[in-house]
Amino acid sequence: MSIQFVYSHQHFVTDVYRISGNNSAKNSASTKFDTAIQGGWADRMARCIFRYHLGDLKTRVLLGSHGYVAQLNIQRGIERRKPQEIMSIKQEFNAKQFNFNKIKHDEIIFEMIKDKKGGSPLTNNAECPQPQKMVVLVNVSPLEFGHCLFVPDPAHCHPQILTKFAIHVGIEAVLLSSDPGFRVGFNSLGAFASVNHLHLHGYYLDHPLKIESKPVKPLCPEKGFYRILDFPAGFLFYAESEEVEKVAQTICEVTDFLVNDNIAHNLFLTRGSPPCVQTQGEKDFCSRKGVRVAVWPRISCFGAKEESAFNVALCELAGHLPFKSKKDFERMTEKDVVDVIQSYLLPEDEFHQLEQQLTEHLLCS
């Protein structure tokens, strides 16, 4: 029987700040969520559950305004499971292909269950306070420390199309961590998702990213919907602990719209500053009490295509670049990275049209 991580609203952490000018953060001590993820992950690494040993990764910040965090992870490019051949954003789940019902039981860290009445975070109690559960398991081909997968009730065999429950728990997972370096993300089919079985990624990256505080333009602020003004072009949502339900619903409306329009997309969830439009005081700029959710619509990639330097997926769009080769890691400049990423983004006129359609859709909903 898997360990259950039972949590409630009272376990969310709100006093998180990024100290301006360096990589450090002012925040509370590690939470039970962080301890459970990190401890479970380290235990599986010690027991050789992973495809390779992940030590400290060679890291450098590329010169330039985007602050790209480049990391060399050769083994992930070599040892990871071959991505499935994806031919449609709406591709149905196929039980004959690899899916998360076929993993070893030792890969499971715990099951996340929300207790709306409050309760102890860790328990072996088999009783389930709510019908839906989120299974958290290690990613056996990790890109960083603590790399895990969030799989909503694997037995339901959902395809890789985002649900309200999945995004809701993804936001709550970030709020359960006191570490501003804990990130969660999602790749749709056609956006470098490698397995067609609903899952989100989670991992720790001990470096600040520009997405945490990028300026935005309000599109439908009453729905928490903004446009990211900096490169790469995308949309932004923001949620604090009291707004998760409402924001998760709106995000799902947007991703449903994208799926129905056959537009591939990536999401990245991270602690971030409130989306103030013009002026921000130092306190607001450094605050990480809420969660920023970036949504990037992009050009679809079908088949089992792989880029030579890096794949443009959730972490790359957010500014974290896991490189597959030492040569690319050492030689690529910010301009080189921008050129690669730009080739996967929607043309400007298509993005502008989509922006108008989504804004009208949310205003009418």
Automatic annotation (TrEMBL):
GO annotation terms (biological process): glucose metabolic process
EC number(s) on file: 2.7.7.78
Subcellular location, record wording: Cytoplasm
Keyword vocabulary terms for this entry: Cytoplasm, Guanine-nucleotide releasing factor, Hydrolase, Nucleotide-binding, Nucleotidyltransferase, Transferase
Nucleotidyltransferase is among the record's keywords: yes
Keyword Nucleotide-binding attributed: yes
GDPGP1-like N-terminal domain residues: 32-203
GO annotations of cellular component type: cytoplasm
InterPro entries: GDPGP, GDPGP1_C, GDPGP1_N
Superkingdom to which the source organism belongs: Eukaryota
Annotated GDPGP1-like C-terminal domain residues: 224-362
Reactions catalysed according to its record: GDP-alpha-D-glucose + phosphate = alpha-D-glucose 1-phosphate + GDP + H(+)
Molecular-function GO term, any one: nucleotide binding
Known role: Specific and highly efficient GDP-D-glucose phosphorylase regulating the levels of GDP-D-glucose in cells.
Family: Belongs to the GDPGP1 family.
Protein name: GDP-D-glucose phosphorylase 1
